[in-house]
Design brief:
This protein is of the alpha+beta class and about 80 residues long. The chain is about 20% helix and about 35% strand. It has a domain of about 45 residues: Lrp/AsnC effector binding domain/regulation of amino acid metabolism (RAM) domain (Alpha-Beta Plaits, 2-Layer Sandwich), CATH 3.30.70.920. This is AsnC family transcriptional regulator.
């Protein structure tokens, strides 16, 4: 499973959230961004429930105020063969 997640953080807590999330092996890319959201992450996991587990962790994080998740559709630019 692969997904992109946009995150809003409490003001001034972006760097600490990024630093903490960098430690998760499922996160293969993470960036602070400008605009409606504060942080962009790309996750990849072999576990069918992996995306949901990451989302639960994010939504329970005291400095995360909102998330927006986009699941990758295999066969539209990627293929099921490219999935872990």
């Amino acid at each position: 499973m692969q997904a992109y997640i946009l995150i809003n953080c409490k003001t001034g807590r972006e760097i600490s959230v990024i630093t903490e999330l960098k430690e998760l092996p499922e996160i293969i890319e993470i960036n602070g961004i400008w605009g409606k959201y504060d942080v962009f992450i790309k996750i990849k996991t072999p576990d069918p429930n992996g995306v949901e587990l990451i989302l639960q962790r994010l939504r329970n994080h005291p400095d995360v105020t909102d998330t927006f998740t986009m699941h990758v559709l295999y066969g539209q630019g990627g293929s099921i063969d490219q999935e872990i």
